[in-house]
Amino acid sequence: MDRLTDAGALVELLGDWTTAHGPLYRKLAGAVAKCIDAGDLRAGQRLPSERDLAKLLTVSRATVVAAYDELRGGGLVDSLRGSGTRVATRARPKSSGSDGRVPGGRATSIFQRLVDGPGEIISLAMAVEPAAPELTEAIRDLAGTDLDDLMADVGYHPRGYPPLREAVADHYAELWLPTTPDQVLVTTGAQQVIGLVAQMYLRPGCTVIVESPSWPGCLDVFRAAGARLVGVPLDEEGIRPDHLAKAFADEKPVLAYVMPTFHNPTGALMSTGRRQRVAELAAKFDVPVLEDNAYTGFVSRDGVAALSPIGAFARGNAEILTVGSMAKAVWGGLRIGWVRGPSAIIERLARYKVRADLGSPVLDQALTARLLPKLSDIAAARGDILRQRLDHLQNLLTDRLPSWRWRTPDGGSALWIELPDTSAQIFAQVALRHGVELVPGSATDPSGGHDNYVRLPFTLPSDVLTELVHRLALAWNDLRRHGPVGEVPGPII
Asked: Which parts of the sequence belong to the HTH gntR-type domain (predicted)?
């Protein structure tokens, strides 16, 4: 790994370090110290050179030199001629979580934002919205009719609340994927499915095929299990089948992870023909496929009808697990997801699930069972709002940042934007000082193939989108001048 890549990894760990108080060099020193305390930087580990770190942070080299001096004064780093600056061998991390930091990984800044809240910046780490109004109606309806019967329930359903499993089965039947309740496992969100699948399938040194780019939170789960990630490129129809076949043949993976419906972050909708081809390749090479359709409830630009999951095309020995969730379609606080697959595989996954939490909250499952039949109507209502916000954001970008390039997504919640001849990691540091937190493309692609991309959610209200683009334009102009930006402005929101 070259030193610039090392610097990039450190920049991701630092997060929104410029929003702290004090001189710039002390903010940087404090952020590095937190990484050492959290154990993200280990004793003896070499830090990036002053020049490389200054380049990615878009600060002067003197700022980094002063920060390293501050850390040396605190006994946290040592510098020796010819060997650079390293974390001091006497530096020891504090107990895990004692500093309030989320453990390291490519999605660290995203998950850290969930913990910390938005603060004084416009954070694009998450594409979230308030709850759909149908959720309030479902809560009132549940309280007024079925609550007594529900309270008489035992409350433990490791495989899922039976009425919800039946509702999920009916949902897939409408998508031409015949399903029985014993083929469904209810989970605490789609993210838990990823974790359970990783526990069951992955071992240190194994290979997982992923799309390039992909969702950082899932990539972190696979890495934590010791897997080696191999990326396969996308086109406008989804994952490239020619590259996928080659990866299956050459890499002998134990799992493939894809997002066919409104891919995150590109917003692409995998075509029916492409879904069928992925299922055929899965059967031919005997590779289990995990298809994540957590964005199913979002709007399609051209009103594309709901497509059958990849699992609907499974033939022979194809082992395909289909994931769904209510978090994106209805509300992030409704942490209910599910996975559909062969009954024998679901039975095995249920054993991991019961060991994890004995079962997801029954009240949430009962609400989901009521909402799932209305999912298409909920998506349609949200779609009108999202289309307006998407059009507004694209018009603003065309006017203020005409050199940026993107493809209007088929659906989902964000634009995937290519920055001309610019590292997104570098631009993210400049944007942060203008009050915007970006997720650079390097977090989505371990190969480095999307280092000049950023993800811009359009779920924010129109007035916030207007202010967002204004700040991004200021940051872009500053970066074009090749000069480090000064201190963080005062309170922003």
From this structure: 22-90
